[in-house]
């Protein structure tokens, strides 16, 4: 029998799920409009270029003695070929300025149009129960409480879910998605605390090795004050948001010294953090000690999605 206290929480969960479904509809509408706008922009640009090229072609060609139908057929064929080539060209150019700026401006206008609707659901993005953030498993909680009579409380449902093993396919999909998110960043804000609990934050550049997305490496001077704080292991990380509002945060992580020297991560820094290698002298590179940040879980937030990924050891 579900208690009144649990029922009140369940009612809030149901309200959240309804709100998040409405939010998802808005997000899907925004995503569709973005996709359609890019497609139409490419088509319009390709059509304009095709018209210009066909007119230029007509001006340069000498059709004396050609039958009218022959000229029309040739022009139609040339227009089709020009249009297909123009489409291919503008599908590449859409990622470059000035077309990229046009797309980004449309994205900003779209974000502004839907800001109020999305902001109204922001309070439901996270859902805490006994100091635990459970927003990702609320659908499962509601399902199991209804489908499994043996589960009489929310705590029973959460314990049951925690004992379930996620499918390897789902985990790999989440891992691949997170890998793509991480590639958009090469700096983070690292927050630590000293022995007295005094917090401090600093921006650091990091790299990943061997395509493992949840272990981030960074170097530091062994004499730096933050080294003693890092050795305590009290840390949290967050990234500055991208132009799309994407950011990664985590306070469930391990920070520890590695056996790597700077030469072991130099190639990764060269590839992933342009300019970092040139900012250090040879002596500084030799002194650097390499720390690792191993994420046990991470939260990914943006205007269009909010989810948490837990990493399997």
Automatic annotation (TrEMBL):
The chain crosses the membrane at residues 41-63, 69-90. InterPro entries: Putative_PNPOx_2 (IPR055196), Split_barrel_FMN-bd (IPR012349). Residues 186-306 form the Pyridoxamine 5'-phosphate oxidase-like domain. It comes from the Bacteria. Keywords: Membrane, Transmembrane, Transmembrane helix. The keyword Metal-binding does not apply. Gene3D superfamilies: Electron Transport, Fmn-binding Protein, Chain A (2.30.110.10). This is Pyridoxamine 5'-phosphate oxidase family protein.
């Amino acid at each position: 029998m579900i208690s009144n206290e649990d029922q009140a929480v369940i009612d809030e969960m149901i309200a959240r799920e309804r709100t998040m479904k409405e939010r998802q509809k808005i997000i899907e509408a925004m995503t569709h409009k973005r996709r359609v706008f890019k497609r139409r922009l490419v088509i319009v640009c390709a059509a304009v270029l095709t018209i210009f090229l066909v007119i230029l072609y007509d001006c340069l060609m000498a059709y004396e003695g050609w039958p009218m139908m022959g000229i029309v057929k040739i022009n139609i064929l040339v227009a089709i070929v020009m249009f297909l080539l123009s489409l291919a060209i503008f599908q590449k150019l859409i990622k470059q300025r000035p077309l990229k700026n046009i797309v980004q401006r449309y994205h900003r206008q779209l974000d502004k149009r839907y800001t109020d609707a999305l902001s109204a659901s922001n309070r439901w993005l996270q859902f805490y129960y006994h100091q635990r953030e459970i927003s990702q498993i609320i659908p499962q909680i509601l399902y199991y409480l209804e489908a499994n009579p043996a589960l009489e409380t929310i705590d029973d449902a959460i314990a049951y879910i925690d004992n379930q093993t996620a499918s390897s396919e789902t985990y790999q999909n989440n891992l691949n998605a997170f890998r793509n998110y991480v590639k958009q960043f090469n700096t983070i804000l690292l927050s630590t605390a000293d022995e007295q609990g005094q917090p401090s934050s600093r921006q650091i550049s990091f790299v990943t090795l061997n395509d493992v997305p949840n272990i981030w490496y960074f170097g530091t001077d062994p004499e730096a004050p933050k080294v003693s704080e890092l050795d305590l292991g009290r840390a949290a990380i967050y990234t500055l948001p991208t132009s799309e509002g994407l950011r990664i945060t985590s306070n469930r992580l391990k920070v520890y010294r590695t056996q790597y020297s700077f030469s072991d991560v130099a190639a990764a820094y060269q590839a992933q953090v342009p300019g970092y290698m040139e900012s250090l002298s040879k002596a500084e590179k030799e002194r650097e000690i390499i720390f690792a940040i191993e994420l046990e879980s991470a939260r990914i937030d943006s205007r269009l999605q909010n989810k948490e990924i837990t990493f399997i050891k």
